[in-house]
Write a structure and sequence with these properties.
Blueprint lengths: L1 E2 L3 H12 L6 E2 L11 E4 L2 E4 L4 E3 L3 H9 L4 E3 L5 E5 L7 E3 L8 E4 L4 H9 L6 E2 L2 E8 L4 E7 L4 E6 L2 E3 L3 H7 L1 E3 L4 H8 L9 E7 L3 H4 L2 E7 L4 E6 L8 E7 L10 H16 L8 E6 L33 E3 L12 H19 L1
Parallel strand pairs: 1-2, 1-14, 2-10, 7-17, 11-15, 14-21
Antiparallel strand pairs: 3-4, 5-9, 6-9, 7-8, 11-12, 12-13, 16-19, 16-20, 17-18, 18-19
Helix pairs in contact: 1-3, 1-8, 2-8, 4-5
Bound molecules: flavin-adenine dinucleotide (FAD).
The site of flavin-adenine dinucleotide (FAD) has 41 residues, from helix 1, strand 5, strand 11, helix 4 and helix 8.
């Protein structure tokens, strides 16, 4: 059994299924993908969670290629806007192209998860079901699950791969026997990547900033957005500017209406009056998403990911960890999710022999 149908859990399940094992993925949300979420409306799509992968990330790139996902470079042509202080007009700056290159998935990143799940047998992914307890026995694991109505039942499996952000697994799943102290500390001390992010997305009739020689990239010390990016679809049919809300900015405490006003005003300052009047606007607050975050914790940087305790199967191999935060390389990113999923599957397969 795999707990969590994010990219890590689906990668694990895919590898196990390919090796001939029967696998069930239990997912708390009503949909797969976890922190990879694409809003699809007709021909238009918007990534509400993960956006980029990078040209030097070999695991996500190889998986995407295998699944026939097309990638395109992040639009960076033209100048960027820097807003350095309150009541000081933003100025235009040159920004060198990123190295390694930033890439986006055509059609949105969640298609990656749908294609992975599409390789699993029908019914392999059980949605809207929380794993609440895992008990390791000599012959396998008993997994207690609760459906949306709170009805609990027990499932059995030879092993459980927990592909849930470690802090959330610690807060939401009761493990028996108790987890070793070092592992428990590592779980609580590992922040969930981007768990405090609020992504603000403005859709326009056309990418007018491109016509003005702007890349859509902006940096701000004023806020509420700290950075802004061009998020147009690869075919240019949907024109988008999106940004992250500053971690500390007080607009987080405002109601959505007033926060939206502040975001529009800032977009207007950065890109001109047209930017202050989008045709559609979306906000995705990951900090209040119960399947990403337990409580909002602001960790001091730098934070260590990929604690060695996550690489050790527990209870004779009954319990194995996956999830981007457990990866020793690429942690936090989709790259880390794929790496951790492949590592977890290899551990299960080695232990089955
Ligand atoms: C706003 C935002 C922007 C990002 N931008 C990027 C980016 O540009 N590039 C990049 O590489 N990465 C980015 N990331 C990070 C990227 O999304 C993650 O690295 C990746 O999706 C993690 O996958 P995962 O499977 O490890 O975890 P998750 O996606 O968190 O999956 C865990 C799954 O477990 C489920 N779950 C939780 N608890 C339970 C339970 N008790 N029982 C059953 N299921 C449970 C959850 O619902 C979820 O589906 C971003 C993330 C966010 C939020």
């Amino acid at each position: 059994m795999v707990v969590g149908a994010g990219l890590a859990g689906l990668t694990t399940a895919d590898a196990l299924h390919a090796a001939g094992l029967a696998v069930t993925v239990v997912e708390a949300r009503p949909s797969i993908g976890g922190r990879i979420k694409t809003l699809v409306e007709g021909d238009s799509w918007l990534d509400l969670g993960a956006t980029w992968h990078w040209s030097n990330q070999s695991h996500i790139r190889s998986l995407a290629a295998e699944l026939g996902m097309e990638a395109f470079p992040q639009f960076r042509d033209g100048r960027a806007v820097a807003e350095e202080a309150q009541n000081v007009a933003p100025r235009l700056v040159d920004v060198p192209p990123p190295s390694p290159a930033e890439l986006r998935f055509a059609g949105g990143a969640q298609a990656l998860c749908h294609r992975l799940a599409g390789r699993l047998p029908a019914q392999a992914v059980v949605l809207s079901t929380d794993v609440v307890a895992i008990s390791a026995e000599t012959s396998g694991v008993h997994v207690s699950v609760a459906d949306r109505d709170g009805r609990e039942s027990k499932l059995s499996s030879r092993f459980a791969v927990v592909a849930v952000p470690p802090r959330l697994a610690w807060a939401g799943i009761t493990f028996t026997p108790a987890l070793p102290d070092a592992l428990a500390d590592a779980m609580q001390g590992t922040p969930t990547w981007m768990a405090t992010a609020v992504k603000c997305i403005a859709v326009y009739d056309s990418p007018f900033w491109r016509d003005a020689g702007l890349s859509g990239l902006a940096f701000s010390r004023v806020g509420p957005l700290v950075e802004v990016h061009d998020g147009c679809t690869d075919d240019g049919s949907t024109a988008v500017l999106w940004g992250f809300l500053s971690a500390g900015h007080d607009v987080r405490d405002l109601d959505v209406e007033r926060r939206t006003e502040a975001v529009f005003a800032q977009l207007g300052r950065l890109f001109g009056p047209e930017a202050a009047d989008p045709v559609r606007y979306y906000e995705r607050d990951w900090s209040n998403d119960p399947y990403t975050n337990d409580v909002v914790v602001w960790f001091d940087d730098p934070v260590a990911y990929g604690h060695p305790a996550f690489a050790e199967p527990l209870f004779g191999g009954r319990l194995i960890w996956a999830g981007t935060e457990t990866a020793d390389v690429g942690a936090g990113h989709m790259e880390g999710a794929v790496r951790s999923g492949r590592r977890a599957a290899a551990q299960v397969l080695a232990l089955q022999q």
